[in-house]
């Protein structure tokens, strides 16, 4: 064309340059095709959807579909829809001063039609960046038709001395103001049914009607929605006629493997701190954190209809690193390695992000959190060591350790223990260090110590070693001794310990 598009100032300049406007859906389709041909990544940072969700979204765009992303919380639905504007043209021309981003070639508002009729090719234009062509509304019960579509503005009518029959007294809502762009509604079922009805015309006829005005505004817009499954809560449903008009329903999901979950958490969690303390995180801790989420998603104590967000694993990993960081600060250490006892401080990241069924409420959310952590440790342990559940081949490996505890051995660990004291107490367990060195290759002495505690916790989870947790002090001992010692306590103490132990079985 010879001139940079954004230098064009009038409708006549656009015609002279040969500019051809496209509808927003055609524009998205054109740019997606170009990116696919070039092999570009369409949704950077979205992990685990490469063969499922992302192809379906691309199919919807290629088919010029409005779409809804349906899935449980924490499945990147909002992040996905916020990436759609990247598929729009960088700039498009609109009539200068238009409230509804009027296309200079086909204006829809009275203002746009009149200025083109009066000025013709001299109609002034301005360029709208794609970042300004996306709007989003969280559906809430108090959302109104006026918010989304528009209403009569009596103040505008009074100031301009207009009658209510004049089109210019209309105050446009969010959707008309996003004309020629993408409009998203999050949590669609929360929208009252009568408000959902107001969206029917937009989806089918691509137009809006306001307060009985005998006029139509043919909008150029892509509508995108997100929702949790309708049986998630009793807050509301998507009305059937509206669901019927949404062209593509795309089902999202949680990570299907631990490795995908680790990649997501690695990307999202704040791990590179300010350098005050260097925290080393052995890889098996990443596996345990992800396994906690997997255990929660199949636990009989957790309401599976509400889901378990990937935000839980992100927060859990950050809490785990913070626990190690705090210990190093208290002990004046410049670096530290995460320990199994640090998992105790992951509980706050779990308790606030799971919904419990009746049985879970009876157990208590803290006990359920500890149960999930324990199950995760138990599930990951056989990846590194022989499975203690295998009586023929696995159990014999741990016999020297079990014999040490049977002779009255005891290990007491607190989260703030300095490294030297932490290692000294673990080294006292006969056969423990040798077992770790036999089956694993720890990179540092600190990682070896963490692995040693890993073994003790896993043996407890298999009911081979006793454990008591009192005021954040962990005490490992002979399983029979721990059971017998509880018999001599008063009822209140016994009930309290039973609750704690039940959380680790």
Automatic annotation (TrEMBL):
This is Magnesium chelatase subunit I. Residues 132-245 form the ATPase dynein-related AAA domain. Pfam families: AAA_5. PANTHER family: PROTEIN KINASE PRKA, PROTEIN PRKA. It comes from Rhodothermus profundi. InterPro entries: ATPase_dyneun-rel_AAA, P-loop_NTPase. It comes from the Bacteria. GO terms for molecular function: ATP binding; ATP hydrolysis activity; protein kinase activity.
